[in-house]
């Protein structure tokens, strides 16, 4: 059985568009790099030089602008992605720093509490004086960030008696 086919009207005819040669593409690229917008005169001149319809030149320019814009958007996206990664890393570093500072602040707060509670005692004697001096050393060490106030990291004794 033969199927009936509608005769193709001019509107529905398939035109076989010729692909551009490398030389034609190079000429279009060169002109595009000079100016990415086409005025009617340039379009006609290029179409004549290339031996293609002016509409094909116009479409090539339109597609080239779209590809260029897409490429630019991809580059912008990559740059923004990198900035985001940097900001996230910096944020994580700062969060760690905040936690470290909170712990240090809590330690200082505890030392102050201990210092205040020991200084409110009315004990007199060398043991009381010794513990008060130790608390002062701990407080000072906490302020300057030394972990163990009785052992200096560089061997220097901050609290040794100078003779």
Topology:
Elements: H1 22-34, H2 40-50, H3 54-120, H4 126-144
Helix pairs in contact: 2-3, 3-4
Coiled coil: 63-111
Region (Disordered): 1-20
InterPro entries: HD, HDZip_class_I_plant, Homeobox_CS, Homeodomain-like_sf
Describe the structure.
- There is one protein chain.
- By secondary structure, this protein is mainly alpha-helical.
- 67% of the residues lie in helices and 0% in strands.
- It contains four helices and no strands.
- It has helices at residues 22-34, 40-50, 54-120, 126-144.
- It is rod-shaped and about 105 Å long.
- The N and C termini lie far apart (120 Å).
User: Alpha-carbon distance between the termini?
Assistant: 120 Å
Give the number of DSSP strands: 0
Biggest sheet, in brief? none
Could you report the average pLDDT, rounded to the nearest whole number?
80
Uncertain segments are 122-126
Envelope shape: rod-shaped
Brief overview, please?
This protein is an all-alpha fold and 163 residues long.
Task: Give me some keywords for this one.
163 residues, mainly alpha, 4 helices, 0% strand, rod-shaped, DNA-binding transcription factor activity, RNA polymerase II-specific
């Amino acid at each position: 059985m033969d199927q009936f086919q509608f005769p193709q009207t001019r509107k529905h005819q398939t035109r076989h568009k010729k692909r551009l040669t490398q030389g034609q593409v190079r000429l279009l690229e060169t002109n595009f790099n000079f100016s990415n917008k086409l005025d009617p005169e340039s379009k006609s001149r290029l179409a004549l030089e290339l031996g293609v319809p002016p509409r094909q030149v116009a479409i090539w320019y339109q597609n080239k602008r779209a590809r260029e814009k897409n490429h630019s958007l991809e580059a912008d996206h990559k740059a923004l992605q990198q900035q985001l990664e940097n900001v996230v890393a910096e944020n994580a570093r700062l969060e760690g720093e905040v936690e470290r500072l909170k712990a240090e602040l809590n330690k200082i707060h505890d030392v102050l509490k201990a210092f205040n509670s020991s200084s409110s005692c009315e004990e007199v004697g060398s043991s009381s004086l010794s513990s008060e001096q130790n608390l002062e050393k701990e407080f000072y060490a906490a302020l300057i960030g030394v972990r163990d106030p009785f052992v200096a990291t560089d061997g220097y004794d901050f609290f040794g008696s100078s003779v």
